[in-house]
Amino acid sequence: MTSTFNVVTSQEYKYGFVTDIEADSVAPGLNEDVIRFISTKKGEPDWLLEFRLKAYRHWLTMTEPDWANVVYPKPDFQKIVYYSAPKPKKPQYASMDEVDPELRRTFEKLGVPIHEQEALAGVAVDVVFDSVSVTTTYREKLATVGIIFCSFSEAVKSHPELVRKYLGSVVPSSDNFYAALNSAVFTDGSFVFIPKGVACPMDLSTYFRINNKESGQFERTLIVAEEGASVSYLEGCTAPQFDTNQLHAAVVELVALDHASIKYSTVQNWYAGDKDGKGGIFNFVTKRGLCKGKGSHISWTQVETGSAITWKYPSCVLLGDDSIGEFYSVALTNHKQQADTGTKMVHIGKNTKSTIISKGISAGDSSNSYRGLVKVQPKAEGARNFSQCDSMLIGQSCSASTFPYIEVQNRSARVEHEATTSKIGEEQLLYFQQRGIPAEEAISMIINGFCKDVFRELPMEFAVEATKLLSLKLEGSVG
Amino acid sequence: MLSIKNLTASINGTPVLKGIDLELKAGEIHAIMGPNGSGKSTLGKVLVGHPAYEVTGGEVLYEGRNLFELEPDARARAGIFMGFQHPIEVPGVSNAAFLRLAYNKKAEAEGRDELDPLEFDDFIHEKIKLVAMKEEFLDRSLNEGFSGGEKKRNEILQMAVLEPKLAILDELDSGLDIDALRVLGDAVNKLQRPDRALLIITHFPRILEIIEPQFVHVLSGGRILKSAGKELAIELEERGYDWVLEEAAAGSQR
Lengths: 479, 254
Ligand SMILES: Nc1ncnc2c1ncn2[C@@H]1O[C@H](COP(=O)(O)OP(=O)(O)OP(=O)(O)O)[C@@H](O)[C@H]1O
Ligand SMILES: [Mg+2]
Prior knowledge:
The structure holds 2 protein chains of 2 kinds.
Chain A: E1 23-25, H1 32-41, H2 46-60, E2 84-86, H3 101-110, E3 123-129, E4 132-136, H4 139-143, E5 148-151, H5 152-158, H6 160-166, H7 177-185, E6 190-194, E7 203-209, E8 220-225, E9 230-238, E10 245-248, E11 251-256, E12 261-268, E13 280-291, E14 297-304, E15 309-312, E16 315-318, E17 324-333, E18 338-347, E19 353-362, E20 367-376, E21 384-394, E22 399-408, E23 414-424, H8 426-434, H9 439-450, H10 452-455, H11 460-474
Parallel strand pairs in A: 3-7, 6-8, 7-9, 8-11, 9-12, 10-13, 11-13, 12-14, 13-15, 13-16, 14-17, 15-18, 16-18, 17-19, 18-20, 19-21, 20-22, 21-23
Antiparallel strand pairs in A: 1-2, 3-4, 5-6
Helix pairs in contact in A: 1-2, 2-7, 5-6, 9-11
Chain B: E1 2-11, E2 14-24, E3 29-33, H1 40-48, E4 53-62, E5 65-66, H2 72-77, E6 80-83, E7 90-94, H3 95-109, H4 117-130, H5 136-139, E8 141-142, H6 148-162, E9 166-170, H7 178-191, E10 197-201, H8 205-210, E11 215-220, E12 223-228, H9 231-239, H10 242-253
Parallel strand pairs in B: 3-10, 3-11, 6-9, 9-10
Antiparallel strand pairs in B: 1-2, 1-4, 4-5, 7-8, 11-12
The structure holds adenosine-5'-triphosphate and magnesium ion (MG).
Adenosine-5'-triphosphate binds near residues 11, 12, 16, 36 and 40 of chain B.
């Protein structure tokens, strides 16, 4: 009998269709004129154009990072389209019914509820298509309690003082190569503001979709929770299947003031390329939360299953005393996918706590790395961290690596790190099969067991989706 | 029920089974004994379809069908069960969920109704009584952190849930305390029916005093060297294996 671990085909990516829609785009390439074009197109104030240009000029002095454990052809930044918007019949959609039916159908196909009537109970959705935010649901209802949930562009127009105050306050435009690029050319994204003392009554959600073949997607998300406020935010993403690579370089900034809490969950299913590694999204994202206030709490939960290359480290800066940062991650790679993902927990305030639970699953010829930094600064008296990084290998030709960096500058700190590597081996699989359970279902059950500590952090619908997604992604991993 | 003819198998190119012949009829209980490393577990694993073992010759018919045409999971659903010598641990997968999925897969294959979690709850409560297992084990991760004896108990619980036609129990007795051996031995006896067969792999006659076989086989060096009745187990306990080997060597020279 031959080995069970012959990788055959993978389940086809079901979001790989392209929407035939007229787009309003600039020619490929990047220079100051393109940036001015974007800014003008969006009717931005001068300070924002300045913010962009400053970022761009800084970006020109930077080089692409190469420390990540990933190998890929460097994107040609002059071949990327930096602005692509579905051409609206009218400049602004007054209601959902005015959205291009073709576009609406796209989101129906994706299962994204943008029609308020059909919306999932209790989830407000902002939808970003290529560069532009298409619609935000439940906005009025949220406004009655003072919550602002709208596209980034709208926030710039209607709440410029808030945007100006917080934009770049967590991820400065000079932070890293891709953050600088994003700061220069970002086109849209979501803006959330939860005022003092308000617990957001529903989950907020953004759905990102790259449709244009040459376009990069550079969205910007900013979430601010004032004193005592709380919010749970969900992010989902897909892209069509092209045999070229698309660049996705987003920046997400979270700010939590005293006793505020932000929970940010992602299920990332960008197109991963085919099984030979052709095409797919380059996902180079900077996500960072600032626990600015005392007793504030930021929690990242991510399920990363897509993209050809993933380079992503949702982080927490624990500035306020007694603040808490959490990172729960499942990263799955199959075929030729490469992921280098993890987190940074920077303890600055006293008695700050962080928890890192990372589950890496690699199958096929993929490579999956966890990279995490736990830094305890001198004043972080009583800081605590617990990290658990587990890797699971399926088959013989994939790899998993763990790179934990620990820098402790306060002697009262306690930092614990645990790591395991396991294999869904023949023995485990045979055990399930011997009880009558087919291999595919066995793998799915074993993987879900492995990811349990992360999945239970996800909102219910997302947990169900994540479970299905992992099974789908691994279909065919055993022959 | 099971007919093994001149079966040979190897692992990583090394022959381990070198021509096994064995007939198991419905209602029968057979025991296999033999020195360490003689191929007893290998025989079981080959029968259930462990992918690391390569069948190099011979044939096995199960209920008249070529066993090797069936995938391991299909063999299980067709009624073959193996209680492993070293059951594997699976973190995060609840024992109850695993048992229910296994039960439902078999039920589905046999065209019986599947059980929902509530129905299964009632069903499993009867079964855990049979093996005197504490309820808390149902909520724990499958075999994770179970003691050696608890794992064996869990194997027999699975057997009770699946009610196999042919059960291969590989060293059920090793790691069990005296009382546990009695309880699980009795449970296996209760599950035995005229249309079912048992293959007990063991080193010790004690288990065979509870689960009484009609046949005892000595497996050594990948071959069955001797087959006799139950009394052979006692004789082996007293005299060891050397005389069987010598007898067999003399026999083959003749
Ligand atoms: N994966 C493997 N790689 C190499 N050799 C193996 C492997 N598995 C089993 N063997 C060898 O096959 C032979 C038979 O092993 P098997 O486990 O069937 O013995 P056994 O009769 O069950 O022994 P015990 O009484 O100790 O359980 C042994 O020599 C063993 O070392
Ligand atoms: Mg053995």
